[in-house]
Fold this protein.
Amino acid sequence: MILPAFLTAEHTTVEQQIEQILKQALSELQSASQTSQIQAFSVQYLGRKGLVTQYLRNISQLPAEQRPMAGKRANEIKYILEEALQKALQEIETRQAAEDVGIDVSLPGRAIFRGSSHPITRITRQISEIFTRMGFAVAEGPEVELDHYNFEALNIPKNHPARDMQDTFYVSEAIVLRTHTSPIQVRYMEKHAPPFKIIAPGKVYRCDSDITHTPMFHQVEGLVVGESISFGDLKGILTAFVHQMFDDQTSLRFRPSFFPFTEPSAEVDILCVMCRGKGCRVCKQTGWLEVLGSGMVHPAVFENVGYDTSRYSGFAFGMGVERIAMLKFGIDDIRKYYENDIRFLKQF
Amino acid sequence: MKISLNWLKSYVPIQIGVNDLAEALTMTGLEVEAVYDRYDYLKTVVVGRVVSISAHPNSAKLQCCMVDIGKSLVPVVCGANNVYVNCLSALALPGTQLPDGAVIEASTIRGAVSEGMLCSEAELGLGSDRSGIMILPKDILASLATGQPLTSALNLSDTVLEIGLTPNRSDCLSFIGIAREVAAIQNTSLSYPEIKLPEGKNAIRQMTSVTILAPDHCPRYAARILAGATVGPSPHWLRDRLISVGIRPINNVVDITNFVMMETGQPLHAFDFDRLAGHRIVVRTAVSGESFTTLDHKSRTLTADMLMICDGEKPVAIAGVMGGFNSEIEPATQSILIESACFDPTSIRKTSKYFGLNTDASHRFERGVDPEGIVFALDRAAALMVDICGGVLIEGVIDERPVVQELKPIVFSAEATNRLLGTQIDSAVMDSMLQSIGFTVEPLNQDQRNVVPPSFRVDVSRPVDLVEEIARLCGYDRIPTTFPVISEGSAQSFLSQNSREQILQLMAGLGFSETITYSFVHPQSCKHLRLEPGDPRMRALRVLNPLSEDHGIMRTSLIPGILETVSRNISRQSKNLKLFEIGNIFVSNGQDVLPDEIEMLSGLWTGARHEVSWHTPDVACDFYDLKGVVEALLAALHIHDTRFFRNAVQLCPYLKPGIAADIQCGPQVVGHIGQVHSETLSSFNIKQQAYIFEIDIRKLFAMVPDVHQTLIIPRFPAVARDVTLILSKTIESSRIMEMVQEMHDPLMERIMLFDVFEGGHLPSDKKSLSFRLTYRSAAETLEDEAVNELHKSISDKLIQKFDAELP
């Protein structure tokens, strides 16, 4: 065995030699400041021809009684050195990392096309969620509709002035583009017995086009039918809806109105969300915004679908999604919804 | 409808402020849409004193005045000859808009500066005198200085309410009707106009007759005759009343009929009696094809069901809609027959709609007039005509009434009313509520009443109509707020709702922006898609009355709408677009039956593949980008077994041949995908490539599993082996993958295409495809030799089947 220079004459015993190797190794490690020094250290002591390795290999030449002690100690020393080496390496890395300038984290990330939901879809979803949480089911129906379902069954006979309330697109004498989603309610009633609570969202069509009207727009209508459903219940449900849709401080006002398919009928105004009732351009200085039409289902409508009017009562309501979206998002021109300018769409 | 408060005060005292009145009317169901000051247009007209007058340098007819308006002297050029020094007059300052529309401006009139206009009564809309400037009495200066607004000097003040009436409240289409509501609000009484009728000596029945041949259309017809009247302009008060509600004065006779209509709600018509052939009236339906000239000088062809007022020979008026040119009141008219009648609302509406003639009269008849108010209105008009037009009123009234509509009592229950409203109003309180608005109430028992509505409430016929009255009078705000008690069992959402919602969210998540386009499109759009005549998408439903040709048909595909959106965005410099829409298309089954409505999803990608940035080069998207989107969408919906087939060109002529595919899920073709055909692009004025897909999502809804089983994660490692095949370009990669899958080897887990190469050293009709096959056993770790053997056998089969070579 070729002994290194730091083993002087005083290190005569095997034990003394191995302890000296350890001492020397630890002090060298302490002064190492580069990864390359550590690598050299690793070769010098722990490598295939390293001192500790050689020492271990030579144990077999020791007298038999010394071998167990020497072997145990040599393995301990190997372990201590390996640990110390890892620690030294980590320290160097930590120090180097602290000095490194790293990457420019302010560079933009790899861009991903962000998609968006149309504001009308978002508001319809929000309205539907509020009502489904209150136990309403969602019903759908055709957009091109029979005059019967759109008008006649809803107590709006031909040649009645109430038809003027809705400018209608006709496909033929008997077929119209639905002017409201109420025909869904009639179709639903024909197939289901009370009690139930439904909402009917969808596209509707009226011949009208200006800053507040588009020939196609969206409604969500609702219908609740059961035994002893009252006008008070109508107020309760719509108040709960408005409080969830806007906020629970929003005041409501129910005022008498007329719809052929409900009686009594009520328009529902909310305190202007823009000016809080002080009067502004949005509420035309009135302090109130009309957001919902509603009323107790007219007995003629129930008679048309064969419900027992002495047993069942109900209420219906409807709202324009565009109008609510205008209030929620501060949109001032309804036509923006259908221009589909990507710079508009991306905002939702 | 406009309501002047000054006029309204003739029937009811107004005890509350204007805003409170408007609010109260709104809350009883008469929505006040606007409140405005009638004399707002006079706010820049002031009292001025003419301090000096000098001759105009360039005109003999004009004079130059200096007018004192308190804080300054204003030079005014004046053409009136009644102006004198120290006179007080009305000076309209620059900015004033006079009732005739003229706007006063500071100007130079033939070389002389004029900074206002001295006005006549007529010019200010305050009277009929247009002979000279308005001279104000000197004593008004006792309380007012010059420069004060004319409205304060003359005590001109009136407020006009604009009321939006719902179609059921025909009883409120008059001043008396509104006054009745105001009286109920204030709990005050209503005063009706006093009618004094001086009677002459001749009996009316000897002069004329009324024959009703169509009693279904005309249940009542009353008439009076005034002889020796003088037709001329109305007095100022009458003109003023009409102007205040926006009606143009014509002559005294016509003005009186309009005035009484506004007062009572009963439309009247005045005929020149001497021009009625046979001096008589016949009410009948028209002869089909008969032509008739109305007051507006238009000739109209009549149809058989129209109700006409005729004389002994011919029609003289379209009943309830418009009078005839042939019996119009003229300056020389002396004898007048005044008509006050009741017509069937439906008949009037049909006729009015047919001719597009919506008159004040037809508006009221369509909604129903008070059958008991007919003679009152007639007498009121007759009395005013005697006063204003002179002449002699012929004694007596013609009042033909072939049909008397009985006022049927309605059985009303307080208990049922409280149940429907959710209230606990005492039945005695309900009785007095109904009585307060003119209903008669007769008790049947503790709970029930026989209620007869007043004749002017033609809208009330059912018990629920009375419930509405109770709710209205109680005040909606006083009805307690409650919650319905309904079993929750009925609430369930439809699967389609959930799946649609999922698709909406997934598409947005995949980077697409949702658009909503109109369901109607231009009739040319099918042509733009290059559709052949037999294509089902050529079966478009026509809209009979579209707003414009652009909206002429219902869409049979979402693609035209999306391409139009692309075109619009590109013109606004947004060129990188990922758009989608979910909506119905409509395939006609003929105009008289409902069309098939099919819910579709369409997605489009044009422009860049990625947003260009420092590390991302500007690369255009291609077919495989959009195909990847469809694959991701279907996978996320748990719809597997999706395949793409080279598309038959005639199915999608709007796609570029060769870059178009059917999307097949299981056995069904659910949609198409491809590059948009260049001709279609240029029809929409798009100059960049675009990729589009359209899917019938009803078919997808049916495939989305309600629940799906998860797969077990394998315990043993997989082994991968690659194979590269050189084969003909005509062989689609999917055929190789499918063949491998169809071998159904239990150890073959997956095949993946990882490289496609063409060109280089390969012959021009060949390509090289590299596949990685993954092998795995569920039971053990596979040995290399076993895998090699299996891989070789699969490779050999592929080589043989596709006539391929190894590299």
Observations:
- Chain B has a mean pLDDT of 92.
- Chain B is about 25% helix and 25% strand.
- The radius of gyration of chain B is 42 Å.
- The longest strand of chain B covers residues 45-55.
